[in-house]
Structure formats: structure tokens, C-alpha cells
């Protein structure tokens, strides 16, 4: 077919040799057909007639490159680039040429520019070479994505029973994501759409990550926790690709809980987001979450953040994080419950759970755990002397509690302001309720 076309074009050109448009067409056909010497001649002929013909110059560059005439090719590439006449594909060739000339830094810079201009223009070979070079330099390689299917999905050995309090949050998770997974037919019967994720927010240490993991354990699904730095990549365009790989891997590992920790970092324009990856990465995340192109069936999406106010509102639309739940510091009953969980199976002597819970107002679950850890260390020391495990007692735990400061208060001092002044359609009413502030 190409041969036929080439023959016809040649015939046409014989009749009107000055028709550069036609000749350009022929030259490009020859290039495509890998008839490089002829292509080179045709491009040159055009340039003899029209010195400034950009398309012919670009074509000539490509034929030189294909013929491995690198030193000549690089001159044209440089000229096109300097005069702003290089298209992304030309820049890619230029980057390849620079690499071959051992101008690695320049090659990297240019290659990154190409990826910004056109993320589809990747060159695996060049990519690998430039990365290898960088591995010895200041940028680490992204092993996270490479390891995705191997080890990063875990099978948690905890379930809801290991999470104290948080009854409302457990119920929401149950209704919104667990039941749809277990009874898809019921949802279908009512024509109710399944999908979307839950965003947990609140002060540190109150069990967001713990609960996400337990959610996976609850339904014997796999679990993976992802932070923004696991996805970010030095190559523009690659962060989005990593994110896509992550979702794909989660789909292969379904049923699983895909947990995004500190998700606000992804949705906020941060200075540590390299280059301008921010917006593109957000868009990638949103479209993966929408699950239109690829089904997210069996992939339960949870996110957590200490700073929901920094999250781009687009994340909260239906089908995305359309349930936003406040994970508050454990109340008295929850603290009792958490203590029971934390102390279960340990050497104890008649513990007054309620007394300890009363003395640990504003403690987070993590604070309670720290308290228990301090107490255990004390008891271990005593046990070394006696040679038997010394049981923990109420007074030991109260003593340990005194050494700690509740860590949740600080968070509320800033959260309060957002709840008061940026309470977009009542989004943070739960915080106001918790603080006993009238709306
Ligand atoms: N409700 C709870 N029940 C049992 N243990 C809890 C609970 N909340 C917290 N913990 C304990 O505290 C530890 C820290 O909690 P976790 O990491 O889940 O907090 P977080 O809300 O994710 O905090 P951050 O915002 O800092 O990420 C947990 O590993 C767990 O041992
Ligand atoms: Mg956490």
C-alpha cells in the first residue's frame, strides 16, 4: 500500500517537481517506510527550494537520527529548539541525542519538559537510562510501584473487635462500603449506586489508620496504605502513571481496602509537589476514583487526613469521598473499651478500667497505648528482679498516665477556626458539636 503510494507520488512529482507540499508528503512516506537515504534526499531537495521549510527540517532531523548520524542530527535539533520550532517529538529526539552525547543533565531536563508537554511521549529505554543515572544522584527510584503486587498488600489480622469505640464510624463504613460488597444484589434492587469512598478526619492518634486496617480484616480483604510520597515521582507524568498502577494493582487484588493516608497532601497544591504535577495528579486521582474507565468493584477506598480543609473540594463530589466522618477523641466509654483491648491477655491485677478512663480525658487511642507501653516497661523492670511477670495494676497505669500529656487538644485549636469560619455547608458541624459551640 505504502509502496503504491510512494510510486504514485514520485510520478506526480516528476510532472511538477517544484510542488514542495507533494515532495514533503513523499519524503515523510519514505521516512515512514524506513527508506532513509531516499527520504534524506527528498528533505534536502525541499530545503534547497525553501530554505526555511520547518517541516522538512524536522523530517531531515528524524532521518539523520534514524540513520544514526547523530552529530549532524544534533545540530538541526539544537537549531529547531533554539528557534522555538521544535515539537515535543523533536524535543524527545533531542533529549535522546543529548543522552548519546553524554550530556546527561541536559537530557534529563529536556526529557522532563517533553513529558510535561505530552505525557504520552515516553521512551522506556531513555527513561530507564536516565533513571539509572539519577539513582546514583540525588533522586531515589520509586520502588513502591515496582513492589505493588509483591509485598505491599497485607492481610490484616485485626478486625472491628480490635477497635475501641468509634461505633458510628464503624456503622458508616459498614453501610457505605462493606454491605455493598457483600450484598450487591440488594443495592441493585433499589437501583442504588455503589461506589465512592469515606474520608476520615480528626486529631492524630485517634484510630483512623487503625480502623482502616481493621476494615480490611473485618471482611478478610487485603489492605494497602499509601502516602503521597509513595506516588510522587521525579518525572512529570510518572506520578500519574504510578497512581494508575496503584489503582490497577488494587483492582487485581480485590477485594481490598485502598487506604490513602494524609490524602490532603495529594489534593492540595504544596510546595513539595515537584513541578506542576499537582493538578494533573489530582485529576488522575479523581478519574481513577470515579471508576468510569475501569471498574473499582471490590476496591474499598478510605482516606484519612488531619486537615480536611486543605482538601480540594472536587474530592468531595458524589462517587468520590462523599462521606466525610469526624473521628473524635475517644469518650469515656470508648476509652474503657480501648483499654480493654490494649490490656487483653497481659498480666493484670484487678484493673479499674473506669477509674483510668476518667483520668485520661482528651487522651487519644495512641496516647492510651503510650500509657500502657510505659507501664509495661516499668513492670518488665520489676519482673527482671523477681523472675516472674509482675501484673499491672490500676495505680501503675495511672502513674504512667501522669507522665503523658493528652495530644488531641492542640489539633482542636486550629480545627475550631475552620469549623467556625470555613464551615462550608455544615461540613464541620461535628467539630462544633464536640466543642459544645452553638451554631
Ligand atoms: N479506637 C482505637 N482502638 C484501639 N486502638 C486504638 C484506637 N485508636 C488508636 N489506637 C491505637 O493507637 C495507635 C495509633 O492510632 P492510628 O495510627 O490509627 O491513629 P490515626 O488517627 O491514624 O493518627 P494520625 O492522624 O496521626 O495518622 C493505633 O495503632 C492503635 O494501637
Ligand atoms: Mg494515621
Automatic annotation (TrEMBL):
InterPro entries: AAA+_ATPase, AAA_ATPase_domain, AAA_lid_3, ATPase_AAA_core, ATPase_AAA_CS, P-loop_NTPase, TPR-like_helical_dom_sf, TPR_rpt. PROSITE patterns: AAA, TPR. TPR repeats lie at residues 88-121. It comes from the Bacteria. Residues 194-331 form the AAA+ ATPase domain. Keywords: ATP-binding, Nucleotide-binding, TPR repeat. PANTHER family: AAA-FAMILY ATPASE, NUCLEAR VALOSIN-CONTAINING PROTEIN-LIKE. Belongs to the AAA ATPase family. This is AAA family ATPase. It comes from Splendidivirga corallicola. The lineage of its organism: Bacteria, Pseudomonadati, Bacteroidota, Cytophagia, Cytophagales.
